[in-house]
Design goal:
2 helices, 3-stranded antiparallel sheet, mainly beta
């Protein structure tokens, strides 16, 4: 099992998503920041990598409505703003983790 394999994905509170990882690490993510990091073709230009998403168009209180596994490599989040086309790979989620190590 890879270190970048989640053992538990859970909602800490309305603004925070938690993930426990196979290597024992525990991550917490601000859900609005995750929404702003979506890398789908609607949010980021496929060829240039230019961000297309206007951060100001995302409500401050955006939150996951549902979260589902995509194969063995990522999560798809249905957002309260109606967006659902982004896939957050486990490797990308680990890279986005800003949780202090002593948490």
């Amino acid at each position: 099992m890879s270190a970048a394999t989640p053992t538990n994905v859970f909602q800490v509170d309305r603004q925070t998503l938690g993930i426990d990882w196979a290597d024992g690490a525990k991550s917490q993510y601000n859900v609005r920041e995750l929404r702003l990091c979506c890398s789908c073709a609607s949010c980021v230009h496929e060829w240039t990598g230019e961000k297309l998403l206007d951060d100001g168009s995302i409500p401050e209180d955006v939150a996951p409505v549902s979260i589902e596994n995509v194969g063995l490599y990522g999560l798809r989040i249905q957002w309260s703003d109606g967006h659902n086309t982004g896939i957050y790979t486990y490797e990308r989620l680990r890279a986005l983790d800003r949780t202090p190590e002593d948490s």
